[in-house]
Specification:
180 residues, 2 domains, mainly alpha, 8 helices
């Protein structure tokens, strides 16, 4: 075998090896950042003028795209409480609904997220309210130890809510990079 052919084969193996590693990396990232129910996410993110990747990030953090997910108080892909779902459904004119069903859960969850963003005028503050509740966020916005301007929270007293906002932000960026 000639020296040029050997060099070519070594280079080809290196390129193919790099491609295999890169493909495995991409598959791993897409496994880490799943997407399901994309038709509903796109539909309702569009309806409520939300960034599609933000909705994906919220769903990843809330349920990791498992529609049967439930905590002590919340259910479904976007982890809505029965009270939050009922309030939003009334605002939407829905009377006969199952808030745990994926399409309905995403519809109501997106409507609620849009409401929070409009109410607070700040995505991070809205995310804090989505996780920690509006009553807590309203109190924090009026506390100079938490907010200097009544709009942004520079300190979120609940560690869970602080981590939630940070994780959703990170997921949002990763979904944008992977699928945008």
């Amino acid at each position: 075998m000639s020296k040029i052919l050997k060099i070519f084969l070594v280079a080809l193996c290196m390129v193919l090896g790099f491609m295999a590693v890169r493909t495995g990396y991409d598959v791993g990232k897409r496994t880490t950042y799943p997407v399901a129910y994309s038709e509903y996410i796109v539909k309702y993110a569009g309806k409520y003028k939300l960034d599609t990747f933000l909705v994906m990030a919220v769903i990843k953090q809330e349920s990791n795209f498992v529609p049967e997910a439930q905590s002590d108080y919340a259910k479904g892909l976007m982890q809505l409480t029965e009270e939050t779902a009922a309030w939003n459904a009334a605002q939407m004119g829905l009377s006969d609904y199952d808030y745990t069903e994926p399409q309905t859960n995403i519809n109501i969850g997106c409507r609620y997220l849009r409401y929070l963003i409009d109410h607070y005028g700040n995505v991070d503050t809205a995310l804090a309210a989505y996780n920690g509740g509006m009553g807590n966020v309203d109190a924090w916005l009026n506390d100079p130890d938490c907010s200097l301007d009544g709009v942004e929270l520079y300190n979120i007293p609940f560690p869970e809510t602080r981590a939630y906002v940070r994780k959703v932000r990170s997921y949002w960026e990763n979904y944008r990079k992977l699928y945008g």
